[in-house]
Design brief:
The complex is a heterodimer. By secondary structure, chain A is an alpha/beta fold. Chain A contains 15 helices and eleven strands. In chain A, the strands form two sheets. An eight-stranded mixed β-sheet of chain A has the order 5-6-7-3-8-9-11-10, sandwiched between helices. In chain A, helix 3 packs across helix 6, helix 8 packs across helix 9 and helix 8 packs parallel to helix 10. Chain B is an alpha/beta fold. In chain B, helix 6 links the parallel strand 6 and strand 7. Classes of the chains: A alpha/beta, B alpha/beta. Bound molecules: adenosine-5'-triphosphate, adenosine-5'-diphosphate, iron/sulfur cluster (2 copies) and magnesium ion (MG) (2 copies).
Chain lengths: 400, 337
């Protein structure tokens, strides 16, 4: 088992932003010289995750959760900000070349194997990839020079092992042509973690056992289509854990699965993170899941973190108007606990392109006042490890 | 309450190359006028197939083998002569009669339909198409007016009727689908996972609109979802399916608060909540059985913590509960008393 130095966070993201250029329509592009617009997918967020901690990122679809995960994994180039991985700024020197390696199918930074299919699946990522290819010749040259640097190479190699991802969809994140043994062993083999194949297989069996695929011998020769959704997701977890990662991004790891299967997988993740000190970024839109998995959560709205703090406190006494609405909207599995009839929110999620001036929640906020359309509230410290971004939070919550 | 729909011993199998998938295996239940029934259970347990059978939309390799689906108003679609000997069984209707039932009497909002809307037709036109099938004689202006009206009813501004599906948000698309289901004034609306793909806030808004409409028109509804919290919010009765069987049925509160079947108990415990004390996570363990070769006896027995000897060999019949039934040998004793 490896642990990072006690008080150094595994991931320390500071004021990180990601803007995606919006593709102009053909007509518009031909006739108008309109200014380039951007989606503010992630806007100035800071996240610190310690070893053994599971940090929750919650919010509605499109608020920027997955983008944040990709940024922390160095799979996306951030527009601004710093991401320190165990105190080192790996992002600044390597993200562009990371893409090139991706294109060349070398996938240096990718949690091995998964990455390509994931990146190429979404049209948006393909588009951004194209723009990267165009711009990256110069970067490639720099990268080549860096390749001679032994220390740099070692860092890359470690990074490939130390950060991993577990995907949302167990149905297409495993290669259908490999059996379970090969899928789970692939990272070990590629990274040459063990000198002998026997040791690799030993490790795979151990890992299958710890994710609850027992007896492991029954599973190693099966192909993904011979597994249920829950079993596939366990294979994904086993694969991520075989290389003793220090940081794992779990992007909606159970949202495609039934409740009854979910719990087993979450428990397994919990157990492994406790035993091995792995840090997790747990992305979910389900507050009830965040509650059982995370001590700390951050609530995102249109690319911003609007409230961040201890999960139980936020769930019982949310301070930000958006968090209040989100919590009021969660259905409760209890016929007596009726959802508030009128939610404390108006309208619908606007696009991330033309963001309202001032507080970006103000068009939907029932507490909004004149100033809210002028002042863009920053995260303020409420108390230790608790932050909220609303100019009226004290007033609304009757805090002195 | 007047019973509107009664399903007795329904069996629907899919004959695949590797054997018959017993997707619905001897399922019986009733739906009253104005009742909202929740149909819950793990993925693949037969919820959709049950409802597609009611709509008689089972295609090859599927087949409805046995059972009856009695619909109170079935006579309305029959030709006026010699109906006297005919029953209300939907399964005995001619195809032409069945077409009159579909949409007009029993409407279904299909799983994932939100993403299957025709992208090149305006939503208003898509809704009007449904109206045309059953009332082709109505003049166009009047039809359009009805489309506008129904959109307003589900909470979509009439100005959006000329929008294409991609111009609507997920919540609006789901509302448009509800409008499409309601336009012919059906008695029964079946909604298959209608809010599963939506974010909580939008989900809350759509469910609220659904509840209001259901009350307003005194609709009977079957709400399929694996999300028990959604059911807790809108349903009055709850049916739990497991591996092709209906294992428990009863009033919402009874099934939730005093679940009888071990599967129901585990399913409810496995559901995390944001209210109440923080609970330790529990899971059911094991996997849903292969429906081509379901286990002998009670098909939950390989996963059941309360399994007894008889469970491994004999299939449990339904035993009466306070206000419904449960298919589990644990309740046999009560019957003998
Ligand atoms: N490659 C891209 N190019 C352009 N826009 C993008 C790209 N990736 C994401 N976006 C946009 O950035 C915003 C945040 O997206 P992201 O996928 O991070 O959301 P999310 O919270 O993970 O949503 P979901 O729960 O639906 O997965 C959205 O408006 C999305 O459309
Ligand atoms: N067209 C089909 N061909 C073969 N098997 C099918 C088909 N449709 C459904 N099934 C099987 O029937 C069972 C029940 O399916 P379904 O009713 O869709 O479940 P649910 O809606 O509860 O998720 C599953 O085992 C499924 O694989
Ligand atoms: S700053 Fe104003 S608009 Fe923004 S959340 Fe607070 S009260 Fe609402
Ligand atoms: S019949 Fe037996 S195995 Fe089936 S649920 Fe009841 S106790 Fe469990
Ligand atoms: Mg996402
Ligand atoms: Mg279904």
């Amino acid at each position: 088992m490896k642990m990072t130095k006690s008080n150094e966070p595994v991931i320390d993201a500071i004021h990180v932003s990601k803007l995606f250029p919006v593709m102009k329509g053909i007509i518009e592009g031909l006739f108008k010289r309109s200014e380039q617009k951007y989606v503010h997918a992630v806007d100035d967020i800071s996240i610190t995750i310690q070893a053994g901690e599971t940090f929750g990122l919650v919010g509605e679809s499109g608020c920027g959760k997955s983008t944040t995960g990709m940024l922390l994994l160095q799979l996306l180039n951030r527009t601004s900000g710093t991401i320190l991985y165990k105190g080192m700024d790996v992002a600044s020197s390597f993200t562009w070349p990371g893409y090139i390696s991706l294109i060349l199918n070398v996938h240096f930074f990718m949690p091995i194997g998964y990455g390509l299919s994931y990146i190429f699946r979404s049209k948006e990522s393909r588009d951004s990839l194209k723009s990267v290819i165009n711009k990256s010749k110069e970067e490639a040259r720099i990268y080549k020079e860096n390749l001679d640097d032994k220390e740099v190479l070692d860092r890359i190699k470690n990074l490939r092992r130390e950060i991993q991802i577990i995907f949302q969809n167990p149905y297409d994140s495993l290669s259908p042509r490999f059996n379970v043994m090969d899928i789970v062993a692939e990272p070990l083999r590629l990274l040459k973690v063990y000198p002998s194949e026997a040791e690799v297989e030993q490790r795979v069996l151990k890992e299958l056992d710890s994710v609850g695929l027992v007896p492991p011998e029954d599973f190693i020769n099966r192909f993904p289509h011979e597994l249920s959704g829950g079993q596939r997701q366990r294979v994904g977890v086993a694969r991520a854990f075989t290389v003793d990662p220090e940081f794992i991004v779990a992007d909606e790891p159970v949202s495609m699965l039934d409740v009854s299967v979910r719990v087993g997988i979450l428990r397994t993740m919990n157990k492994l993170s406790k035993e091995r000190g792995t840090a997790f970024l747990f992305i979910t839109h389900d507050l009830a899941l965040a509650r059982v998995m995370c001590n700390q959560i951050a609530v995102m709205y249109l690319g911003r973190i609007v409230e961040q703090g201890p999960t139980e406190e936020i769930l019982h006494n949310p301070l930000h108007p958006y968090t209040k609405a989100l919590i009021a909207a969660v259905p409760k599995p209890d016929p007596d606990a009726h959802r508030t009839e009128d939610l404390p929110i108006v309208g619908e999620v606007p696009s991330g392109i033309d963001i309202a001036p001032g507080c970006r929640f103000n068009p939907r906020c029932i507490y909004a006042i004149e100033e809210c359309s002028q002042i863009d509230p920053q995260l303020e410290t409420v108390k230790k490890d608790y932050y909220v971004a609303c100019i009226r939070y004290k007033e609304i919550n009757k805090i002195k | 309450m007047m019973v509107l729909l009664e399903i007795n011993n329904l069996k629907t199998y899919f004959h695949t190359r590797s054997g018959s998938v017993k997707a619905v295996d001897d399922v019986s239940f009733k739906l009253g006028k104005g009742e909202v029934l929740g149909l819950a259970g793990e993925s693949g347990c037969g919820k959709t197939t049950t409802c597609l059978s009611i709509m008689r939309m089972i295609d090859n390799p599927g087949e409805i083998l046995e059972g009856e689906i009695l619909y109170e108003n079935a006579k309305e679609v029959m030709g006026s002569s010699d109906n006297t000997e005919r029953t209300n069984n939907i399964l005995d209707l001619t195809d032409a009669e069945m077409r009159r039932i579909r949409g007009n009497h029993i409407a279904m909002i299909f799983q994932g339909a939100m993403n299957a809307m025709n992208p090149v037709h305006r939503i208003g036109d898509q809704i009007m198409e449904v109206l045309k099938i059953h009332e082709p004689e109505v003049p166009k202006e009047e039809m359009w007016q009805r489309v506008i009206d129904i959109l307003e009813v589900v909470g979509i501004d009439s100005s959006r009727a000329r929008d294409y599906p991609h111009q609507l948000s997920g919540g609006q698309k789901q509302r448009a689908l509800i409008a499409m289901a309601l336009i012919n004034n059906p008695d029964i609306v079946i909604a298959d996972e209608p809010v599963t793909a939506l974010d909580v806030i939008v989900q809350a808004q759509v469910l609220k609109a659904t509840k209001e409409l259901q009350k307003k028109f005194n609709l009977s509804m079957i709400m399929i979802t694996h999300d028990l919290s959604v059911i807790a919010e809108v349903c009055e009765t709850l049916a739990i399916m497991y591996a092709g069987k209906m294992v428990e049925y009863g009033k919402l509160r009874t099934v939730f608060k005093e679940p009888s079947h071990p599967y129901t108990q585990l399913l409810i415990e496995a559901f995390p909540s944001i209210v109440g004390p923080l609970k330790e996570l529990k899971d059911i363990g094991g996997d849903v059985p292969d429906l081509r070769n379901p286990p002998l006896g009670c098909n939950f027995h390989p996963r059941c913590p309360k399994v007894m000897d008889i469970c491994r060999t004999e299939e449990p019949p339904s035993f009466a509960t306070k206000d419904g039934f449960v298919a589990c040998w644990l309740y046999e004793v009560k019957k003998e008393k």
